[in-house]
Amino acid sequence: MTAQPSFASLASGHRTMLLAHRAMVRDLDRVARTAEGLAAAPDAERAEALRAYIEKLSQIIEHHHEGEDEFLWPSLRRLGADEAALTLMTTEHDELAKNLRHWHETARGLGADPSAAAELARLTHPLRDELARHAADEERELSGRLAPVLDEKVWKGFAAHMRKTAPSWTLKFMPAWLSSVAGPDERSGVPAPPVAALFKGWLEKRQRAAFGDDHRS
């Protein structure tokens, strides 16, 4: 098996993508645990905060995959990238999209439907595992079969596309969110570090409301 390149050796956009994958999986872990807690002990305020947070998390995951499908994979295909690797990525996205939509619709019932929390917990565990597997596959392909045509120019184009198409609220959410999962030697993967520092407390307040004490895990 080919060793994965070090974090520091990756293009800046690639570093940011790895942090995004990590943050998505971490948040799905926390959603699952919180939903289980709400199913056992209903809390209207926590349910509403969790529902609001999932609205943002769902948009982030969907936008991330849409950006890859609309810009990154077509760009690599034009450059002659490995077709089997690209097909794997788009196929996994299609499967995830269906499950994400069902999960998101279930979350919208929090606070109104007494059964929503238990159903959300039931759906989140396999969704978390599916997303983690996809992220691992994507990271392997980006450093493997897709690497020969994946250069800094492509990453910069992808980053520009993502900024252009992102909801405006993500401009303060994303830097702080990515920073929250970055290790000391991974800070170079966090875009706009001053913004991340400025909105750290703002993000933590919303995560504390949604996840309670679990927001630090």
From TrEMBL:
Name the InterPro entries on file.
Hemerythrin-like (IPR012312)
Organism equals Streptomyces mobaraensis (strain ATCC 29032 / DSM 40847 / JCM 4168 / NBRC 13819 / NCIMB 11159 / IPCR 16-22)
CDD domains (UniProt xref) = Hr-like
What region holds the Hemerythrin-like domain?
Answer: 15-143
An annotated GO cellular component: plasma membrane
Q: What is this protein called?
A: Hemerythrin-like domain-containing protein
Q: Which PANTHER family match?
A: BLL2471 PROTEIN-RELATED (PTHR39966), HEMERYTHRIN-LIKE DOMAIN-CONTAINING PROTEIN (PTHR39966:SF1)
Q: What is the lineage of its organism?
A: Bacteria, Bacillati, Actinomycetota, Actinomycetes, Kitasatosporales
